[in-house]
Prior knowledge:
The protein has 3 helices and 3 strands. The chain is α+β, with helices and mostly antiparallel strands. Strands 1-2-3 form a 3-stranded antiparallel sheet. β2 and β3 form a beta hairpin. α1 (about 5-30) runs antiparallel to α2. The longest helix is centred in the last third of the chain and has 31 residues, at about 65-95. The two termini are about 15 Å apart. The model is unreliable at about 105-110 (pLDDT under 50).
Amino acid sequence: MSNQKQLNQMMHQMQKMQADMAAAQAALAAETVEATSGGGVVTAVVTGTGELQSVKLAPEVVDSDDVEMLEDLVVAAVTEAMRSAQALQAERMGPLTAGLDLGGLGGMLG
């Protein structure tokens, strides 16, 4: 196969991968993950792209004498939701880049 044909084929594969990745990113932006802390008294919702959408607090967790506990619960819920969003990203984006081999590109261009 000629170098030009290989380059054209590789460019076509790259364009397809780019389109697939854009579609996957759009789907991730539309999905949400949810995490709770404190036995469900704090809930954080994050998009699949990692954007914090909301934090919900159960009324019983709001105690003016223990603001520090509430802050810790919010951090825990948001941290877990972000971790879940990262796992979702890896799950959805991983297959798109798994077989990517650019090894021949250097030889064709050099």
